[in-house]
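Example record

The entry below shows one chain as it appears in the dataset: sequence first, then structure tokens.
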Amino acid sequence: MAEGAISVAAVETSFQKFAVHGDTKATGKEMNGKNFAKLCKDCHVIDGKNVTTTDVDIIFTKVKAKSARVITFEQFNQALTELAPKRFKGKSKEEALQQLYSLIAGKEPSNVGITKVTKAAAVDRLTDTTKYTGSHKERFDESGKGKGKAGRADIPDTSGYVAAYKGSGTYDEKVKEA
């Protein structure tokens, strides 16, 4: 190996991490086209100029077996060997491959920001409880926090007084007066 060369083991580790990404049945020995494209995108092999997603798909199809839908690590290396000169123009094949390895080694599939909270004006407007009217308004307190069941259900009054009776709690005072 050349001085400062990236070990194939480090690249293989990344290959395995991407191979099992999003697939519960994957063993890490083979990678499908979707994950190969994801690896190329996450590791910046695809730069939008020299290497595009189309190039990656074409090379994937070229290195895999005719009827197969996945590639092995050996085929993956073959694909990288074909991608390297495209990505790093003007470099020798070995040099370009080493630079490609350095992009991939130690990387994992990025899951960051897949589910973001939508911040759209329409959503803000619909979830602003201060603008609610009618019976919906009763379900939230002044701060906009939901009241839960108290805001929803008709809670039965078990105090013993007739509904809408204004003099509730005055009985004891009347008895004392008499």
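Notes for this example: Residues 73-87 form the longest helix (15 residues). The longest strand covers residues 30-32.
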